[in-house]
Amino acid sequence: MNINSTFWFFDRIKEDNLCLLYNGDFSDDITNKLIELSEYNINNIDSLHKMKKKASFLMAECFQNIVRHGESLDGKVHASANEGFFLTKNWQDTYYITSGNLIENKKIENLERQLEKVNSLDKDELKLLYREVLENEEISDKGGAGLGLIEMARKSGQKLDYVFTDFDENFALFYNQIVLKSNIENVESVSDSEFKIDEAINYHQRMVSEEILVIHKGDFSQDAIFPVLRIIEDNLQKENKDAVSKKKIFHILVELLQNISRHCLKEGDKKEGIFLIGKSDDCFVVNTGNLIDNNVVDKLKENIDFINSHNGKELKDLYLSKLRERNLPNNGGAGIGLIDIARRLISPINYSIKKLDDKKSFLSINVIA
Amino acid sequence: MLTKLDLKGTRDTPEIVFDPENNRFEISGSSLPEDSNKFYDQIFDWIEVYLKAPNKNTHLICKLEYFNSSSAKMLYQLFIELEKIKDLGKEIVVSWHFESGDKLIEEKGLEYQSILDIPFEMIESN
After folding, report:
1. Is A355 found in the same domain as A302?
2. Where a domain ends, among A195, A226, A258?
3. In b/e form, how buried is each residue of B45-60, taking b as 16+ CB within 10 angstroms?
4. What is the pLDDT of residues B12-32, one digit of tens each?
5. Distance, CA of A296 to CA of A302 (rounded, Å)
6. Number of domains in chain A
7. Whole-angstrom Cα distance, residue B39 to residue B43?
8. Chain A residues touching residue B12 (CB < 8 angstroms)
9. Residues A167 and A142 in one domain
10. CA-nearest residue of chain A to B71?
11. Residues 133-162 of A with CB under 8 A from B
12. Tell me, what's the pLDDT at A141?
């Protein structure tokens, strides 16, 4: 994962109150955690918490689609069959849910027919179809007859927005996006939506090519980052059975995110930042990004360069000497977080500072452990 | 006698039981508050009083699963405070528990052991 990816994503989602992107395995416990995190996020946005139930339902449907379609079909299991893409973002009073999953090419026609059928019906017709399917249904080959699709259309009050993209000779990717608005009961169409499904696909493609597992942009105060940390802890367990490295990555994340919370330039009372977690061979890559005041740029460079000028043994000594210092910075930190992180990396702390205007810059940090 | 310090663990602060009457001193769980001073201040206040009349033997058991770097600093200061028990002619021992294979917690324990001037035993569990 490139250090430039941090700003690439941040710049595109900087107006969002929060944005969570996930590219990976969709087992039950991970999807449950993702829903939990999204619910937590929705709850914290005043205008949105009324639609928490609806959003949770729609997310669960998306996840079930991912898993249902990804399952072994005709004995042909794709290596990444249970993998998928998931995005939730909140921008102003709008909440977006986008999912992407693999589907066999030969099933596309049937799915597309169902999608078109659902999209051709109005509210009352959908209700009728729903009842009809419920009453008559011999459940179709994938537990569906589009029951899920019908429900998604009914609950969201929208035409289903979807795109198929090529994957390989047997599979395609099926993307689908739902838009929820807090101040309107039903959004008739997503055609005027500000965030297009194509942009979400663009994000996913970048995540796949850079092997990025998770991206989170939002409030990094302690309460807000906890659910995120827990998801990642669970996910690391899936990705890597090695408990040692799991704890190491967790530690690096805690220190980096708490640093953002302590040092970032506050916009209002929010402590905002972005982080990305990716893989590279046997290593994990963590990128963080946040706004900083131009006044602290020199000091910060000096600090990181100073740490980077030490080798492993020297870093340990530096850590121990800082541990014994009695003075503590008044921001609650100990001034040893970055030193302790550096000890666990396979290469120096990589960072870049991009000046945005006269007042603020964007700090990107990229570490590999 | 000093009343016991009994703090229930939360998702980001450890469980603390300092009970002089039953001679039980234990820290367990996770410690990763963003502002560690705020949480540890109450512990230092308690220790200050305890140091006026410590038990003959004080045995602190640490069973931490995870702690952040600002907590690492607070733990160091806690150990430094407890070192004073030795100067009072009483005994202080720290047991540092870590799960087998947990390199991070083991490493942190060994570091404390190397810089502290009190008996500090490493106890590995499965």
Report:
1. yes
2. A195
3. ebbeebeeebbeebbb
4. 999 999 999 999 999 999 999
5. 10
6. 2
7. 8
8. 222, 226
9. yes
10. A334
11. none
12. 47
